[in-house]
Design a protein that fits this description.
With 114 residues, this protein is an all-alpha fold. It has one domain: Four Helix Bundle (Hemerythrin (Met), subunit A). The protein is 77% helix and 0% strand. Helix 4 runs antiparallel to helix 5. The chain is elongated, with a radius of gyration of 14 Å.
């Protein structure tokens, strides 16, 4: 199976750690990753729609960290770009963010079902 929005290796390593871990919170966190991506994406989109640049930057920083941990390279790159004070926050940028979040979420969901 191919993945365009996520590098499965880091996520699979985390799944392996969760399976062999005495910390059930890690497994729970990974299972909640698709919902967390939706939640942070919704928050960033709302801040973009309201032109709240400080909020966009802070939320994008959070998104970047989550994406890096999960191996979601495209989401990480977009979040990094949104951290810039000059980042575009218009309708095209919002549509791109929604698409990348949705596709990243879908790929993580597929990895969780393997």
């Amino acid at each position: 199976m191919t993945y365009e929005y996520i590098d499965p290796a880091p996520f699979e390593r985390l799944l392996g750690l969760a399976a062999n871990s005495r910390h059930p919170a890690l497994k729970t966190a990974l299972e909640q990753a698709p919902a967390e991506i939706d939640a942070i994406c919704t928050q960033v989109l709302a801040a973009m729609a309201d032109s709240r640049r400080d909020s966009v930057q802070a939320l994008a920083h959070k998104m970047k960290g989550m994406a890096a941990t999960l191996g979601a390279h495209q989401l990480k790159e977009l979040a990094a770009a949104l951290m810039s004070p000059d980042a575009a926050v218009g309708a095209c940028a919002q549509a791109e963010l929604r698409e990348i979040c949705d596709k990243t979420r879908d790929e993580i969901t597929r990895l969780l079902k393997q």
